[in-house]
Task: inverse folding
């Protein structure tokens, strides 16, 4: 095999990523008659989606019949502090139930209500029990169901066409390093270039559409709940192909990651622990979350432990416990307790379900949490509290897409799931990710199929120059004789981002991070790896560094620019939320080799969606000017004129 | 607290390979995967191994540790004597690609051979009604993370490559049991469980159950009940007689095995 030999495949739709959104997109594209490839960095069925624990939020109203899409929409906007793309939040809330029910028709076995429907559990920021779940392993159920659906389609194709891979094929352990475009005046997507991990052989997928479904960026940070796959590949591929990223300053630090022992630091502890009755305590034994309910949520959360505890059995007459505030609020509160010296022995706080629920119920509802703590930390969660602290979990920012079709500004390029931006605003509610994957995965598959149908004339062809450049770029780390170890560069990058652009940000530190990132870029350009191309993880890390550095640059630049605190972006030097800043999306694009940042107005909310909120609530988020545009001038609401804005 | 562990790690590819000696630092609370990552980052940058979640949820880091099939991420270093040498080898049943990475495509081929979920087509999405007690059994099997340690350890294929064609292995016989016990599945997979997936090869030594990191009772809850269903259906003389004289049609027939010539 010559080193630059390239295997070629031709498809209608190439989906990069085999998690929830990628598989759902591929199933849809195939359902619409498109020959579809699924590219997976890992083995089929190992995607990061398996780590999702709590559930998929969908307003089915199975447990509380008062639930409906409007309530879900409101909760999502509140959770995102009104920075969400309202159309995305609307589509998501409306379509999530159908997407969950569909899974059941494909063989998923969710936990049941007494009348045999899909059970739904409480979660942070959701007004009613809303998360369809299977114990605390919902993501696994979802990925397995979608995987088995792909297999079922392949079986049908085998029977009809004689080849199970005639219409949909999974390319496992395959990494895409570049999207390729055609050489015309207005370049369109022409395919994707990458390598097979097992042999290191290069591959070019020739296709007019690519759906990015690559997930997140957590491996850019040291303490994270994310796997090695989360190196921001799709974010970087989009930037390099000319698409825009929005909201990259918003990174979710999940309040409850394991903190001890050090080797498990960051591993997720599901929010279901709190949804099912678990409480947070500091070293003095206090349920400190009562001290941290922010003004915008004051009306919806209990003020006493007694009221909070009554809520579990009588939610209609009591307010929610503050442990179930949105994740950004809880993570910051935990951080404050630790900083004030009221942390647990290993630098976290206590999450206690042992004293709150019988052991048997804990084992039934949280089996994998029990397993995780007993095996990895020697802690029996039915007898002892857990020690937990914030961990980098999710990026709200991502590729800017059209809400209805998931299309980016680059013709032929689509994005869905965590890699896309806008849906979750400044902070994602737990449970809204699995449903997001399904809703927008399907829409991306549809959008891609329609785009293929709209093409006339010859298909876009990858320019030879772009393919040659991709080959050279991929081979470079192997060809350098002397250079730094890529694992060292990666480890230090993670530490830098964790320390300087983490949960709490300061101008001086973010500026320092940007300086450091420049040095990392120089070092990354000089890394070299021993060994050959066959299954060489050192080579893989060296190639992933480019993506992580691009993403880190976007996060840091946007974090420096946004001078307010909102959701997953907390500036110690600008602690308040600003109604002026709410109107702004920060957009990252690539100009030459450098990331540039511009401002763009947030898409406006339609009047019928605005009408779902009380004016008094909107007033907490919006400027006087915006409110004046909403309220009929003849009848301004009383509180809108009596109080001054803040 | 920390110490230097002696490791023998199998390095090589399909052609050849050998155990290679390393000394690697170990710190409190670490698992085998942590130590292999440290080895990779500091001494053997090209050491091939699979991993994803590092929390026992994805089933990627399957390997053999001192000859025992284990997940690297769920095996605590504290379970070994610091003075002992740890031997780490790839899963033996599957062909090696490189170092600790094996070719597990056998499993994906078997997965594709099992007739999929077959609900009553008249039930629309959203209209499924199932009781919790009726889904409990299949839910246990759906905890499977597809680490393939059970497939790796089952002597029917571990020691007899010739059985790979007629035998689906514990993971996929369990998949058959899962669908058979799914309250809304209508197909009858009892005949093909025996004839095409080799249920009869299993002699219930429970090795699969023993290595399952999810503690699924594969033998007791999936394979034995499936054997009972098959025996009741295929070998009970009264049932056989009934099937000859009764005119009652079966609810749904035995589906064709996908991809079978």
Result:
């Amino acid at each position: 095999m010559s080193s630059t030999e390239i295997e070629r495949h031709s498809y209608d739709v190439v989906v990069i990523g085999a998690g929830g959104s990628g598989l759902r997109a591929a199933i849809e594209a195939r359902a619409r008659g498109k020959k579809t490839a699924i590219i997976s960095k890992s083995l089929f069925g190992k995607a990061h989606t398996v780590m999702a624990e709590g559930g998929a939020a969908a307003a089915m109203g199975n447990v509380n019949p008062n639930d409906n899409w409007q309530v879900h929409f409101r909760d999502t906007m509140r959770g995102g502090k009104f920075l969400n793309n309202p159309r995305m939040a609307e589509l998501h809330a409306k379509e999530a139930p159908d997407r969950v029910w569909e899974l059941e028709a494909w063989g998923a076995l969710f936990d049941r209500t007494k009348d045999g429907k899909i059970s739904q559990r409480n979660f942070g920021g959701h007004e009613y029990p809303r998360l369809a779940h299977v114990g605390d392993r919902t993501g696994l159920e979802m990925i397995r169901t979608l995987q088995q659906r792909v297999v079922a389609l392949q079986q049908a194709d085998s029977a009809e066409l004689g080849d199970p891979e005639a219409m949909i094929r999974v390319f496992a352990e395959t990494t895409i390093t570049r999207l390729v475009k055609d050489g015309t005046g207005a370049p369109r997507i022409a395919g994707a270039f990458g390598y097979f991990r097992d042999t290191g052989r290069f591959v070019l997928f020739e296709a007019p559409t690519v759906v990015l479904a690559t997930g997140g960026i957590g491996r850019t940070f040291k303490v994270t709940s994310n796997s090695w796959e989360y190196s921001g590949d799709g974010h970087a591929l989009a930037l390099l192909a000319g698409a825009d990223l929005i909201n990259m300053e918003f990174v979710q630090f999940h309040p409850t990651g394991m903190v001890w022992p050090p080797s498990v630091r960051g591993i997720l502890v599901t929010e279901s622990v709190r949804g099912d009755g678990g409480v947070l305590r500091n070293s003095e034994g206090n349920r400190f979350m009562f001290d941290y309910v922010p003004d915008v949520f004051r009306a919806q959360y209990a003020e006493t432990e007694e009221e909070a505890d009554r809520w579990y059995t009588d939610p209609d007459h009591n307010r929610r416990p503050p442990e179930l505030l949105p994740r950004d609020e809880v993570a910051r509160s935990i951080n404050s307790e630790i900083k004030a010296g009221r942390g647990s022995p290993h630098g976290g706080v206590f999450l206690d379900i042992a004293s709150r629920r019988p052991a048997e119920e804990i084992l039934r509802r949280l089996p994998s949490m029990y397993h995780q703590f007993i095996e990895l930390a020697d802690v029996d969660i039915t007898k002892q509290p857990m020690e937990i602290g914030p961990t980098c979990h999710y990026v709200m920012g991502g590729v800017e897409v059209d809400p209805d079709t998931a299309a980016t500004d680059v013709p032929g390029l689509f994005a869905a799931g965590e890699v896309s931006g806008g849906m979750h605003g400044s902070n994602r509610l737990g449970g809204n990710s699995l449903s997001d994957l399904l809703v927008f995965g399907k829409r991306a598959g549809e959008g891609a199929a329609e785009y293929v149908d709209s093409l006339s004339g010859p298909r876009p062809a990858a320019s030879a120059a772009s393919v040659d450049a991709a080959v050279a770029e991929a081979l470079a780390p192997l060809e350098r004789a002397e250079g730094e170890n890529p694992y060292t560069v990666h480890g230090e990058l993670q530490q830098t981002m964790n320390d300087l652009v983490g949960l709490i940000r300061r101008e001086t530190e973010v500026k320092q991070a940007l300086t450091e990132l420049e040095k990392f870029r120089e070092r990354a350009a000089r890394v070299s790896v021993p060994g050959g191309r066959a299954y060489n993880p050192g080579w893989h890390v060296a190639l992933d560094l480019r993506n992580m550095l691009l993403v880190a640059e976007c996060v840091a630049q946007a974090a420096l620019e946004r001078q307010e605190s909102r959701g997953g972006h907390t500036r110690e030097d600008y602690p308040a939320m600003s109604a002026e800043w709410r109107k702004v999306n920060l957009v990252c694009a690539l100009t030459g080799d450098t990331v540039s940042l511009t401002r763009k107005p947030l898409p406006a909310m339609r009047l019928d969606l605005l009408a779902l909120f009380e004016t008094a609530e909107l007033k907490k988020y919006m400027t006087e000017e915006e409110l004046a545009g909403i309220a009929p001038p003849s009848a301004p609401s009383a509180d809108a004129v009596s109080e001054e804005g803040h | 607290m920390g110490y230097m562990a002696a490791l023998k790690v199998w390095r090589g590819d399909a052609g050849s390979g050998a155990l290679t000696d390393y000394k690697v630092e170990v710190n409190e609370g670490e698992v085998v995967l942590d130590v292999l990552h440290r080895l990779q980052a500091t001494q053997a940058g090209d050491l091939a191994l699979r991993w994803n979640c590092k929390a026992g949820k994805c089933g990627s880091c399957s390997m053999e540790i001192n000859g025992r099939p284990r997940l690297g991420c769920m095996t605590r270093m504290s379970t070994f004597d610091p003075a002992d040498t740890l031997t780490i080898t790839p899963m033996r049943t599957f062909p090696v690609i490189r170092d600790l990475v094996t070719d597990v495509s056998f499993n994906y081929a078997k997965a594709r051979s099992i007739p999929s979920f077959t609900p009553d087509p008249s039930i629309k999405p959203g209209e499924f009604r199932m009781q919790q007690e009726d889904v409990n059994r299949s839910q246990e099997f759906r905890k499977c993370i597809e680490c393939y340690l059970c497939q790796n350890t089952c002597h029917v294929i571990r020691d007899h490559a010739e059985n790979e064609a007629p035998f689906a292995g514990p993971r996929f016989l369990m998949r058959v049991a899962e669908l058979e016990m799914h309250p809304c599945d209508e197909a009858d997979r009892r005949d093909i469980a025996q004839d095409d997936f080799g249920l009869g090869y299993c002699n219930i030594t429970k090795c699969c159950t023993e290595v399952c990191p999810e503690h699924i009772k594969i033998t007791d809850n999936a394979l034995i009940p499936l054997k009972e269903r098959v025996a009741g259906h295929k070998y009970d003389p009264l049932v056989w007689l009934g099937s000859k004289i009764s005119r009652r049609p079966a609810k749904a027939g035995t589906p064709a095995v996908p991809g079978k010539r």
In short: The CA atoms of residues 40 and 46 of chain B lie 7 Å apart. The beta strands of chain B are 3-12, 17-26, 62-65, 68-71, 85-89, 96-98, 101-102. Chain B has a mean pLDDT of 94.
